[in-house]
């Protein structure tokens, strides 16, 4: 184990352009980091990996493996969004920075590099394609994106913060500032609940109504919708009535039949003897 004194004395920063042997290697102490010469790194190279720790080959290789394979942007979709983010249940998995963008190979590489900086701030980065995950996009009011234009939201402490204004995929500083410091200056709201099947059916009916109104006119669609609603209400009422009738009939069939009570004694039986004895006593 490294003591605190030895750890501070041996801290260095190793900057890799890519986790390969041929990559450029620059070492600098923490104090010399701001004045380090990074001109050897060619523009457009792979995202850099920064390792802060003791300059030891074991620690260095572990860091390279962690950063190159372990830290990546989470690819979210309709199936895993709520499970991974726990947005509605209170954010038990922490705060999430979610970016809505078209998931191309180049975009995924950019967000894998951005996830290092986001993870260092204590946040999780998730990327979701609004075209392929339309249910989640509708849930947060996100339209389909094209080009480098993106939508950014922050799920923090059961609140939704939405980046106001246009933003591009390459605006790293704006994304990080929004996620860490400036989110309170942007529009915020309650995190919407997950969309259910009923919501999808309602949206489908609305889309059908709008399409029919454009083709046949609003009055025709209104009359047809009213007639369909009345037929549906009549069918539901009939079904409920039949259910109650069937339940009552089954209950009456299972009730036990009452047993007949014994008839009183007729004249000439013991009752007559009782009357004779009573008259003698009198």
UniProtKB/TrEMBL annotation:
Keywords: Membrane, Signal, Transmembrane, Transmembrane helix. It comes from the Eukaryota. Residues 255-282 are annotated as: Disordered. The chain crosses the membrane at residues 221-247. Residues 1-23 form the signal peptide. This is Protein BIG1.
